[in-house]
Amino acid sequence: MVLHTRVCDILNITHPVIQGGMHFVAYSSLSAAVSNAGGLGIITALTQPSPEHLRAEIQKLKALLRTPNVPFGVNMTLLPTLAPPNYDAYLDVIIEERVPVVETAGGNPSAIIKRLKSAGITVIHKCVNIKHALTAERLGVDIIAMDGFECAGHPGDDDIPNMILLPRAKEALKIPFIASGGIGTGSQLAACLALGAEGINMGTRFMATREAPIHDGIKSALVSGTELSTTHVMKSLKNTERVYKNSASKQVQELEAKHPGDINAIRHLVRGENYRRSFQETGNADDSVWSAGMVMGLIHDVPTVAVLIERIVADAENVIQALPTRVVASGAYPTPTSKL
């Protein structure tokens, strides 16, 4: 059995497995490993300090691909910030470097989507609710990534888990969609397909791989964590983020309770530089606020990317093939007799 969906055809990938954009994680080494293993690897544009740094990272990724025609992508996320980056300059680099796929998320992506589609680039747009998904579909994106409440990072304010979000997307959308948020196993891939998705998008699970360019201390925290090891911050700013539960995130919550809606009260704790240092230098999982998903409860090892993808796909195929054996004809088992 081979798991092949419309998403595989659109993205020209072997397996319906996508690695989403992640700040200070989705660099060329991880993304190339995912693409080389038959999925779609994506580097994060705004992790790079300038458009020219992004160009260098894209070229580095290209050099790591097993063949020049292996597909890859770049993430462009529009989030509230005091100093917005020059999105047009980043887009210029993406188009000039002939990036085949772009994942967009956050904000109002209409202008970006228009430029990307005019350049012939395949667009995946990440959404947390059906309203935004339908808007993205009208704007002409190729694939929707439905991001459930279980996800790391920004789940929006509707708190809709994938068990509801995915069937709603199946009802509402005409274009293919993939499932994102809380996913890390083959049985979950099979479940997502059953709910109408045509692939999965994983972030946190790919952090716990050998190729992920983050400190082993962070990977150890992911393995030792559980589904209860995350929490939310920045709710009062309407910019909710699911993060690792530690002393830094607790401080943010305490300050938010005292100063709701005041970014200046928590700015020193939620600076990206703090978790860049944790990820890239110290490996201290406790002293910065960093995104992580509830899938931590299903992370038990740190394999190579290739082993992880092969395992997920094989497990999904086994689950799908075993389903007929779990469904029995009515009356196949005797009805229990009450002794009361």
Descriptive key words:
340 residues; alpha/beta; two-stranded antiparallel sheet; 10 strands; globular
Secondary-structure topology with pairs:
Layout: H1 6-11, E1 17-19, H2 28-36, E2 42-44, H3 51-64, E3 73-77, H4 87-96, E4 101-105, H5 110-118, E5 122-127, H6 130-139, E6 143-147, H7 162-172, E7 177-180, H8 186-194, E8 200-202, H9 204-207, H10 216-224, E9 230-233, E10 241-244, H11 247-258, H12 263-270, H13 272-282, H14 305-326
Parallel strand pairs: 1-8, 2-3, 3-4, 4-5, 5-6, 6-7, 7-8
Antiparallel strand pairs: 9-10
Helix pairs in contact: 2-3, 3-4, 8-14, 11-12
Polypeptide structure, described:
With 340 residues, the chain is α/β, with parallel strands linked by helices. It is 42% helix and 12% strand. The protein has helices at residues 6-11, 28-36, 51-64, 87-96, 110-118, 130-139, 162-172, 186-194, 204-207, 216-224, 247-258, 263-270, 272-282, 305-326; strands spanning 17-19, 42-44, 73-77, 101-105, 122-127, 143-147, 177-180, 200-202, 230-233, 241-244. An eight-stranded parallel beta sheet has the order 1-8-7-6-5-4-3-2. It has a two-stranded antiparallel sheet with strand order 9-10. Helix 11 (247-258) runs antiparallel to helix 12. The longest helix has 22 residues, at 305-326. The N and C termini lie far apart (49 Å).
Concise summary:
This protein has helices at 6-11, 28-36, 51-64, 87-96, 110-118, 130-139, 162-172, 186-194, 204-207, 216-224, 247-258, 263-270, 272-282, 305-326, and strands at residues 17-19, 42-44, 73-77, 101-105, 122-127, 143-147, 177-180, 200-202, 230-233, 241-244.
